[in-house]
Specification:
This protein is α+β, with helices and mostly antiparallel strands. The protein is 65% helix and 7% strand.
Length: 302
């Protein structure tokens, strides 16, 4: 049975919609320019990248588990964790995902899978040992909210044409390196240069928009966790503990786990200061402030 929702975040929904629209408009403009430069050869590029995106979409869970070192565990191996996931999945009104454990002291968690029926939620040994059960519930509810919202599928689709732009940018660069500056029309810029510049601009702008969508989806997952559990203060406490513990982990271990930052509930570079435009997650302070606002709306103590 689902918890009562305390209203939608209309502002967040509109910002997500606007960002997605801008990303789509960018890709349309990108292809209009490319179609002016190429004819049917562009189709081969789309087919190749489409195949790669299809492979990524259907193997996303296996790739993420392999990259993180997560191992699927059965109920007899982690009965308490299975019971917690099963209860929260029922509250979120989604099928119970598979459960995985990562043998590392780094406290974190992630979810992956192309849809709710083919999903996995993974937690680290450090998370399970260092957080209280109510805090772990908040973290798991956040990850189940990602599954509920089909975020892996959304981000795969959003990044598809960005991958094409990155590949064409490399093609243009290589073409310029080996063409010797030849050009069919001495009065115009070389095609390889136009392709390189258009692809580079498309990639950079799309990357910024994709990171923006990623941050919005983290906000949405935080809100989803608050509504599933009815206790946003538990997720707030968990986020603070995870961020605090990350600062105590050796830098070598953090670098090894950095490839999973886009998946983790709290990235390993949480304390680093760089432009928010290029961050996969919102600043921790902003996440806590939003959760505090939700708690106030729900009449919960903070």
């Amino acid at each position: 049975m689902k918890r009562k929702a305390y209203g939608r975040d209309i502002g967040l929904s509109w910002r997500m919609l606007l960002t997605t629209f801008l990303l789509g408009a960018l890709y349309v403009a990108f292809f209009v320019v490319l179609l002016q430069l190429f004819s049917l050869s562009l189709g081969a590029v789309i087919v190749i990248m489409g195949g790669l995106a299809f492979l990524q979409y259907f193997t996303s869970d296996k790739i993420a588990l392999k990259a993180s070192g997560a191992k699927i565990v059965e109920r007899d191996q982690a009965p308490d964790l299975h019971d917690m996931v099963e209860r929260l999945a029922a509250m979120a009104d989604i099928p119970k995902p598979r459960v995985a454990v990562i043998d590392t002291d780094l406290p974190n968690a992630f979810a992956t899978g192309r849809n709710p029926k083919h999903s996995v939620v993974a937690v680290t040994r450090g998370l399970w040992q260092r957080l209280e059960p109510r805090e772990i519930e908040g973290v798991l509810a956040h990850e189940l909210s990602h599954i509920q919202h089909r975020d892996v599928a959304v981000m795969t689709i959003a990044s598809f044409f960005s991958m094409i732009a990155a590949m064409l940018m490399r093609f243009g660069l290589y073409a310029g390196m080996f063409s010797g500056g030849n050009n069919r029309d001495n009065n115009s810029a070389p095609i390889w240069l136009i392709m390189f510049l258009v692809s580079m601009v498309t990639y950079v702008v799309s990357y910024i928009l994709i990171m923006t969508i990623s941050r919005y989806r983290e906000y949405a997952a935080d809100r989803g966790a608050a509504l599933i559990t009815g206790a946003p203060e538990n997720l707030m406490s968990a986020l603070q503990k995870i961020a605090s513990r990350i600062t105590q982990i050796p830098q070598r271990d953090l670098r090894e786990a950095a490839g999973m930052n886009a998946f983790f509930i709290v990235p390993t570079n949480v304390k680093q200061s760089f432009g928010q435009l290029f961050m996969t997650h919102p600043p921790l302070e902003k996440r806590l402030a939003r959760l505090a606002q939700i708690a106030q709306e729900m009449g919960r103590p903070v």
